[in-house]
Amino acid sequence: MGTTIDHKVIFGIDIGGTTVKCGLFDGEGVLLFSDEIPTRKDEGGSRILSDIEAHIKKICEDRQIVKSNILGIGMGIPGSITEDGVVNKCVNLGWGIFNVKEEMASRTGLKVFVGNDANVAALGEYAKGGGKGYKSMMMVTIGTGVGGGVIIDGKPIFGAHGAAGEIGHIPMVESEKETCNCGKRGCLEQVASATGIVRVASRFLNDSDEPSELRNVQYLSAKAVFDEAKAGDGLALKVVDYVTEYLGRGLAVSAGVIDPECFLIGGGVSKAGDFFIKKIEESYRRNVFYPSRDTAIVTATLGNDAGMYGASQLVLAGL
Q1: Pairing of strands 136-142, 262-266
Q2: Taking each helix axis from N to C terminus, what angle separates 306-317 and 117-128, rounded to the nearest 10 degrees?
Q3: pTM to 2 decimal places
Q4: Is 76 within 8 Å of 319 (Cβ atoms)?
Q5: Which CATH code, of 3.20.20.330, 3.40.50.620, 3.30.420.40, 3.80.10.10, is assigned to 9-123+305-317?
Q6: What's the pLDDT tens digit per position in 137-176?
Q7: Within 10 Å of residue 159's Cβ, how many Cβ atoms?
Q8: Looking at per-residue confidence, does 257 or 91 come out higher?
Q9: What is the DSSP code string of 222-287?
Q10: What is residue 44's three-state secondary structure?
Q11: What class has domain 132-301?
């Protein structure tokens, strides 16, 4: 039995491809408790919402939370989602097109607020993390894919089709011959995501006889590429320069459209730290329109909790 909670609370839910992160927040957006449950993607992801509903119910029972004290449920979803809550297909979860906001509200009888996971993570960083203090920002999450979220004056920008901030699918790499998961060719994500970095490194290794410690790595990964580049490995440095050139260009393109005060770099690959950020900055400064040259490029600070925090902020802002 958990501690009894008798004040206003919020549930912040971040749905990922492997796990669903569940955060319980107070009415000021302070995290009280968090855990996670598996994301069951079988049967077209039909069990995901019922699993979340059951888990919220269990937390309420364990902590003696009455329904009248729940301000609402905020949810970050890994796919395009419109402002009124319609998921426009979510390949990673097996979902088609349906109104997840209405479905979850019907299941729980609570107010539900939803958004794209990258936008929601950006909102979390804006309110409680590395973006705090900026009026406008764009967060770029670099992991299995490359996602983006735009915040202007405290409000996430969804776009008419729920696809605002999708920097990973800007067509940039003209030489790319393989097809992206989205069905297009030449997307930024194909070279700048963790999987993209491995693909680029594999190509460089196959197309060259240049000695490299990467040839001795048992499992090639983005982390291995950055570790060897930091150690001065010539071929690894070429891979990093190639990847960050495109990332910098992607930010420069984005600056030409939204001109934010700050770019925030998050996701697993951001753990490469200042070395990574400086490389992106070099490309960005070379490629951006001069009025935006001094835009701050910083690392996100909330890590994997950003989505939960952002989901709670959706409720607080009534978005």
Answers
A1: parallel
A2: 80
A3: 0.85
A4: no
A5: 3.30.420.40
A6: 999 989 888 989 999 988 888 888 878 898 999 999 998 8
A7: 16
A8: 257
A9: HHHHHHHHHTT-HHHHHHHHHHHHHHHHHHHHHHHHH--SEEEEESGGGGGTHHHHHHHHHHHHHH
A10: helix
A11: alpha beta
